[in-house]
Amino acid sequence: MNYQGIIFDLDGTLLDTIDDITAALNTVMSRHDFKQYSIEEAKKMVGDGMRELMVRARPELASQDKLIDSLVEEFRLEYAKVWRKHSRPYPGIPELLTELSRKGLKLAILSNKAHPFTEMMAKELLPVSFQAVCGAQPGLPLKPDPTAARLILKELNLTPDKVLYVGDTAIDMKTAMAAGLTPVGVLWGFRHAQELVRSGARFLLLKPADLLPLVAGEKET
Fold this sequence. Notes:
Blueprint: E1 5-8, E2 15-16, H1 18-31, H2 39-43, H3 50-57, H4 65-82, E3 88-89, H5 93-102, E4 106-114, H6 115-125, E5 132-136, H7 147-156, E6 163-167, H8 170-179, E7 182-186, H9 193-198, E8 203-205, H10 211-215
Parallel strand pairs: 1-4, 1-6, 4-5, 6-7, 7-8
Antiparallel strand pairs: 2-3
Helix pairs in contact: 1-4, 3-4
């Protein structure tokens, strides 16, 4: 099948952001004399939005909404200071996006990262313009709920069977399946192949360029 559009996850898929996320997280944790986290630990905690990150960092506070809300706001402020410090596209991503754009593919981003950060990072760190960019925002359920993916499909004016969803976590694969998209897992991100396959990935990419023959229909679905 020749696909006409691609929806990408952001963190762990297009951008390597984990150093800056971990730094902001540990700044907040240190302020309260809480446990510090390694980058490898943080990779397992991200993907479900800022609030869930704070809950995973301090699970004993999960039922204390006001405290979690306070930590989320602290994290948001700290991340705003450092999000550009180390974050960058993965090797091969700029070239991939440029080629996909040249071929006329409709490109979009769907992330559980807060929408303002998602928009800024897409604009400032990636080389192409996206037809739709959607991050976490009030009134819109987080992935894996398919609502946001379906809104993006409407904006792209494409049916689900014509669109790939490319991501690095189980949440992404579940989102794709819930929205009727073809789930594609990447192996350079924050999680492992077993998680992606177990969650429904139809294809796995070792490197960004591996997406091109899939888009062209050179791999069977």
